[in-house]
Amino acid sequence: EILFIIKQALSQQQDTDMQAPRNARVKDSKSSKYLFSNSADAKYLQNQISLVAPTDYSVIIYGESGAGKEGVARLIHEKSRRSNMPFVAMDCGAISRELAGSELFGHEKGSFTGALNQKIGHFETAYGGTLFLDEVGNLPYDTQILLLRVLQERVLRRIGGNKEIPTDVRIIVASNERLSDACQRGKFREDLYHRLNEFGIELQPLRKRKEDIIYFANYFLTETSAELGKNIIGLEAEVEDVFLNYPWPGNVRELKNVIKRAVLLTHGDRVPVKALPFEILNHAQLQFNVAETDINGATNSNTQLNQMNPSFSAPEFSKPMLKKVAMEAEYEMIMTALAKTNFNKSKAAEILGIDRKTLYNKMKQMQMADK
Hints:
By secondary structure, the chain is an alpha/beta fold. The chain has helices at 2-19, 40-52, 69-78, 100-105, 122-125, 141-153, 179-184, 190-196, 210-227, 237-245, 251-265, 278-281, 283-286, 301-308, 322-340, 345-352, 356-369, and strands spanning 24-27, 59-62, 87-91, 130-134, 155-156, 165-166, 170-175, 199-202, 234-235, 270-271.
C-alpha cells in the first residue's frame, strides 16, 4: 500500500508538471524578494506580515495594480510553517468563465468537450502550501460557490469526478476593489467574503508614500545599472522633482519599468530628464480639461493650448505657420486621447485611428520639439 501511494503521488506530480495551467505560477519559495524602505508605512506592513504569517488565517490584500500584492503574499508564505511547500499564484482575471472551475479544482478526462486528459487543479498543486488568488473578485459567481464549499469542507471534487480529494491549502487573495462593495453590488458572495476576511492588509499607493519614491528609484537604478554593465550613480535633481510630482498610477511596477528604460537611454553617470517617457514629462498638461468650452459652447483653443504646453504659442496669422498650427492640433488630439485612456497607448492609438508605432513616433517628435 505504501509503495502504491508513493507511485500514485509521483504520477500526480508528473501530471502537475506537464499540465500546470499557463496562468498559474508554481514558485520556489526561496526565489523572491520584497523591497522595504525605512518609512513608517513599510515598518507597519512588515509588522502585519510578521503577525499573520505564522497562522493559517486566510488573508485579503488590497492594493492598486503594481503595488506589490503578490510580493506580500509570497512573504507571508515564506514566513509561515508552509514555506517549504508550493506557493501557487493564479490571476483570476486571466481565466475564462468556462475554465475557472477546471483551473482551480481540475477535471477528469471526458468531463466536457475538450477535456482530453485528466487535469490537476491549483488546489491539488498547492497541497500543503499556499494558493494565492489575484483579483479574486473576477471569479465567476458559480465558481465562488464551489470555492466556498472547498474552503469549508476541505475536500474537493474534480470537474466531472465523484471522488472526494482532501485539501490542505492556505488561501491568500488580492483585490484592487473592496470586496464588501462587490458584495453589495451582487458581484461577490457575502458568505465567501466573510470566509476569506480573517485578516486584511492594505497596501498604500506609491503616490501616498512620497518618501519611498526616491529610495525605490535608486534601488532599481543600482540593480539595472549592474545588469546592463553601466556605472550610473544616481538621478539628476530635476528627475527627482519630476518623480516626486508624478502620481505613479502603475505604482512600484511602473517606477521600476521607467528606471529600466531610463538607465538604458543614459550615457552619463546620472539619469537625465530627457531619458524619461513622454507621458511622465507631460503629465501636468494632461491634468487640464481639454474639452473646456466657453459660454457659447466654443472651445477656447488658444488658452487651452497654452495651458497644455507653454512651449506652443498661438499662431501669428501674419506669418505662414501652417506646419506649427497642424502640430499644435495634433498635440491636442494626442493629449486628449491619452487622458481619456489613462495613458494606454494602444487604446489611444485606436481612438486616433492610427497604429501604436505611429503614435510613438509622433510622441517622440513632440518631445523633441518641446526641448
